[in-house]
Amino acid sequence: MTSPAPASRSPRRLPAVEERSAGGVVVDVHEGEARIAVIARRNRAGRLEWCLPKGHIEGEETLVETAAREVAEETGIEARVLIELGTIDYWFATPDRRIHKFVHHYLLEAIGGYLTIDNDPDHEAVDVAWLSLREAHRHLTFPNERRIAREAWQRLAGDA
């Protein structure tokens, strides 16, 4: 009589953690047209991705404070938060954990500064640009960020 085959062990499920970030759509009106500041980063494969400025909460910051700081660091534009636009959430994994990421996006009004990536402490941004708000959703890499840009346009146009 043969002994039963050992039960196959299911892979150990990685622990899950939650992370929150904030950023948003910073708007400036130039020659009668609303435009937004966007940044370019390289993904792990080296491809250029155009995205909205955002980043991690530091210390006891509120989400609103984080959004304004991250916009300033990544784009060089000083801005004040006007309204919340929405939250994007997604999952990703590192070698030792699964992360459920929540990114809170705000509509911000540019009040000073100039476009630069020189203030980005993480040096993630490789470029920064103004895009027409009306057309920005066509240039942003991620569908969820395109949705946030369209929401900003609708809010400013009075459609929402």
Defining key terms:
160 residues, seven-stranded mixed beta sheet, 7 strands, 47% strand
How is this structure best described in words?
This protein is an alpha+beta fold and 160 residues long. Helices cover 18% and strands 47% of the residues. The chain contains two helices and seven strands, in the order ββββαβββα. It is globular and about 60 Å long.
Biggest β-sheet description? 7 strands, mixed
N→C terminal distance: 73 Å
Low-confidence stretches: none
Please give the number of β-strands. 7
Helix content: 10-25%
Number of helices: 2
Radius of gyration: 20 Å
Q: What global shape is seen?
A: globular
Strand content: over 45%
Structural class: alpha+beta
Write the layout of secondary structure elements.
Blueprint: E1 16-30, E2 33-42, E3 48-51, E4 54-56, H1 63-75, E5 77-94, E6 97-113, E7 125-132, H2 143-157
